[in-house]
Write a structure and sequence with these properties.
five-stranded mixed sheet, rod-shaped, 3 helices, two-stranded antiparallel ribbon, alpha+beta
Length: 185
């Protein structure tokens, strides 16, 4: 009799009940429902920060190149090849000469009739944020005007003209909505 009771006690202690397993699964699903969106948001924020930091690095290279010009203009400083030769840190970036940046890439275009007579430049980045594309653009004009755009309207180049010339207040993020939607600083 004692052996029978001891065996039943061992069986009841060695396994989890169905309710215990369901409770654990529910707790794990709640934790995942909270953690996964937070993780994805942080990943997207990191991509945005990286894109804006890389734009600043490209801008610094263009400005340094212009400072080396005897007349201080952007002439010859607005091509990817020139920038990568001038600043070795840019060689790992995908920088295109042209009007549109590739996904997770950058583009630089001169403002004016040609790169040799550039009257300014536009640097763009395009990143994938979840299921949508986020675009950043900095427009630097030779007269000192600086415009920063974010969002779908940041595809600011059309040949040598600038599509969006509205001044942007100095925010630090790509605002998702409201009156500051699509701007960054």
């Amino acid at each position: 009799m004692h052996a029978l009771l001891s065996e039943r006690k061992r069986e009841s202690e060695s396994a989890f009940t169905l309710i215990e397993l369901l409770v654990v699964m529910i707790i794990i699903s709640i934790l995942m429902a909270v953690a996964v969106p937070t993780f994805l948001a942080q990943k997207n924020n990191a991509q945005k920060s990286k894109a804006t930091a890389n734009i600043k690095q490209i801008v610094n290279a263009v400005e340094s190149c212009a400072a080396n010009n005897t007349d201080g203009t952007y002439a010859g400083c607005t091509t990817a090849a020139t920038l990568k030769a001038f600043e070795k840190g840019l060689t790992s970036l995908t920088i295109a000469d042209g009007t549109t940046a590739a996904v997770n890439g950058y583009a630089i275009t001169h403002i004016g009739t040609s790169a040799t007579t550039a009257q300014g430049y536009i640097v763009q980045a395009q990143i994938k944020d979840g299921d949508r594309m986020v675009r950043f653009a900095e427009i630097h004009k030779e007269d000192g005007t600086l415009l920063k755009l974010c969002g779908p309207g940041a595809t600011a180049m059309s040949g040598t003209s600038v599509k969006n010339t509205a001044a942007v207040p100095g925010s630090r993020t790509c605002a998702p909505g409201g009156s500051a939607a699509g701007t960054w600083g």
